[in-house]
């Protein structure tokens, strides 16, 4: 004898979950659309000399702040449900946003959120403060930024910086590749401290060494030809 | 920049004439590396140091749960194996078999208890993927036992009473467990069909078109029950609507196909017994396993 109520219950639970996913998905799509325009703005950095970068950073900051509003909306909905049940819906877009934030910060934007003006990136706590979301929660089941998401965002940022090193040279900026090289080598040595298992973090962080190499090659080409400005960087 | 990408950080750099540039490069690297060390590196290293501890404990937790899940799966499989020796449904499991299954159920309970510290609050859903296989296999065993005893499906709330309350049982795991149950019911039905004899009397079920001819063979009521229940489970599962996008119930489609095959196998077996069974001498047992396989694949 098969009790039909069992399957009716299952169906109603599935419908509930679909409704939650749809609601989250709608916000994430808006976040993604705004994210693409942030990235488009930031990618102008590849063709803008450092001294003319301010308008680009201002525009990017404005767009990042618009994304921040979506994150708040997301948080208000996601907080009602178990965090890791739906985390996959937004994780990717949140990473993209954080990578934009970090890139913007590295280029000199978002100064007021850094620990010091010389800092080149935002720590996980600083990102959390900026976005007004908790980070790395261990006990409480609420919306937050996870450590993995933060690290993955840093890796995306490194990839973008490696590209910037090449393009800086094209723009006639021979100083920036060295700065980039120092920064990502620093990050690389940080990632080497981690014992990574066979997961996404491992796969992505394996890519950092290619970025490091890309930038080293640029720095090497420049130094070989004595093109690096004296007294700076090296 | 066209160097061998397989060995990027240690590859030998060469000038355009192909002369290795070892010395040149290493001085360059060390000078750039040291220049910035004093400023940001210690920060970076201490930040990553704390990340490292955290990732380590995450991996440890993950591996502990995978191991627990595997142990639960193995024990559940053994329980199912013992239960497949049962020949009748709707009656309590014989003592000779509960003697095998009971200690294993106790062991499983202990394993679940040992998993609790790793899956409290936030971590329940975080490590769901790691512990799910064990839970599903356990639900399969539990629901099979329940079916043998009562000829009905176990409900989700009944499943929960067999586990420590801290263990998260999702609808998904429950559904996947029920899917697997259809496979066990198939095996149970096929063996009991081939072992049991058919009767000449019409069972309560009856076959619509054959009602006028009382001499035709029919299945024993218990056998007919399994066939009917399997068919109903299939119909109920097929009436469930699940969106095909996203990551929801990702195993649903594969398991659904397996279930359909199982149900068909049993229907074929029942058909074979009915049609050809009457032509066979008393006591003759058809080699169902092979015959059925052939007709399905």
From TrEMBL, chain A:
Q: Where in the cell is it found?
A: Cytoplasm; Nucleus
Q: What keywords appear on the UniProt entry?
A: Cytoplasm, DNA-binding, Nucleus, RNA-binding
SUPFAM superfamilies in UniProt: Translin
Say where the protein is mainly found. Answer: cytoplasm
- Record carries keyword Nucleus: yes
Return the Gene3D superfamilies for the record: Translin, domain 1, Translin, domain 2
What's the superkingdom here?
Answer: Eukaryota
Q: Do you know which InterPro entries this protein is assigned to?
A: Translin, Translin_C, Translin_fam, Translin_N, Translin_sf
UniProt protein name: Translin
User: From which lineage does this chain's organism come?
Assistant: Eukaryota, Fungi, Dikarya, Ascomycota, Pezizomycotina
TrEMBL record, chain B:
Q: Output the CDD domains linked to this UniProt entry.
A: TRAX
Q: Which keywords fit this entry according to its UniProt record? A: Cytoplasm, Nucleus
Domain of life, per UniProt, equals Eukaryota
Where does the record place Polar residues bias?
A: 1-13
Q: Does the keyword Cytoplasm apply?
A: yes
For this protein, the record's SUPFAM superfamilies field holds:
Translin
Tell me the InterPro entries matching this sequence.
Translin_C, Translin_fam, Translin_N, Translin_sf
Write out the ranges of the annotated region (Disordered).
1-21, 198-217
Which residue ranges have biased composition labelled Acidic residues?
202-211
Q: Does the keyword Calcium apply?
A: no
Per UniProt, subcellular location reads as:
Cytoplasm; Nucleus
Sequence similarity: Belongs to the translin family.
Q: Give the protein's recorded name.
A: Translin family-domain-containing protein
What organism does the UniProt record list as the source?
Answer: Aspergillus cavernicola
């Amino acid at each position: 004898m098969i009790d039909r109520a069992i399957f009716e219950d299952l169906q109603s639970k599935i419908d509930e979950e679909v409704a939650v996913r749809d609601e989250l998905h709608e916000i994430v799509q808006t976040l993604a659309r705004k994210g693409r325009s942030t990235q488009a703005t930031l990618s102008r950095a590849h063709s803008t000399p450092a001294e003319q970068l301010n308008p680009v950073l201002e525009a990017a900051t404005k767009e990042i702040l618009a994304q921040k509003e979506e994150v708040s909306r997301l948080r208000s909905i996601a907080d009602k449900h178990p965090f890791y049940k739906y985390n996959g819906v937004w994780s990717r877009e949140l990473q993209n946003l954080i990578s934009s934030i970090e890139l913007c910060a590295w280029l000199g934007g978002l100064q007021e959120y850094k620990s010091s003006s010389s800092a080149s990136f935002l720590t996980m706590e600083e990102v959390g403060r900026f976005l007004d979301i908790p980070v790395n929660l261990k006990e409480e089941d609420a919306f937050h930024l996870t450590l993995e998401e933060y690290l993955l965002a840093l890796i995306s940022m490194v990839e973008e910086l490696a590209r910037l090193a090449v393009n800086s040279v094209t723009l006639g900026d021979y100083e920036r590749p060295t700065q980039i090289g120092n920064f990502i080598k620093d990050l690389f040595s940080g990632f080497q401290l981690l014992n990574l298992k066979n997961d996404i973090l491992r796969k992505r962080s394996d890519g950092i060494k290619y970025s490091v190499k890309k930038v080293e090659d640029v720095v090497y080409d420049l130094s070989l030809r004595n093109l690096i400005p004296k007294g700076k960087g090296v | 920049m066209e160097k061998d990408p397989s060995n990027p950080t240690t590859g030998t750099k060469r000038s355009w004439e192909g002369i290795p540039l070892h010395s040149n490069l290493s001085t360059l690297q060390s000078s750039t590396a040291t220049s910035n060390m004093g400023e940001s590196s210690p920060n970076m290293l201490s930040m990553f140091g704390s990340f490292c501890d955290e990732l380590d404990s995450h991996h440890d937790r993950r591996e502990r749960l995978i191991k627990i899940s595997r142990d639960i799966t193995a024990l559940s499989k053994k329980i199912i194996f013992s239960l497949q020796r049962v020949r009748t449904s709707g009656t309590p499991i014989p003592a000779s078999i509960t003697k095998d299954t009971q200690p294993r159920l106790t062991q499983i309970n202990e394993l679940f208890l040992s998993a609790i510290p790793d899956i409290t609050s936030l971590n329940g859903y975080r490590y769901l993927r790691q512990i799910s296989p064990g839970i599903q296999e356990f639900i399969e065993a539990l629901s099979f036992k329940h079916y043998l005893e009562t000829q009905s499906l176990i409900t989700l709330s009944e499943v929960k009473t067999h586990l420590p309350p801290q263990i998260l049982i999702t609808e998904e795991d429950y559904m996947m467990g029920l899917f697997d149950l259809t496979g066990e019911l198939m095996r149970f039905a096929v063996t009991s069909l081939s072992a049991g004899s058919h009767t000449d009397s019409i069972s309560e079920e009856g076959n619509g078109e054959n009602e006028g001819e009382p001499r035709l063979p029919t299945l024993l009521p218990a056998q007919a029950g399994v066939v009917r229940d399997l068919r109903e489970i299939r119909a109920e599962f097929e009436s469930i609507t699940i969106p095909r996008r996203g990551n929801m119930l990702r195993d649903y489609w594969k398991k659904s196909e397996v279930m359909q095959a199982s149900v068909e196998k049993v229907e074929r077996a029942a058909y074979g017994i009915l049609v050809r069974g009457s032509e066979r001498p008393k006591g003759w047992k058809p080699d169902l396993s092979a015959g059925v396989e052939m007709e399905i694949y």
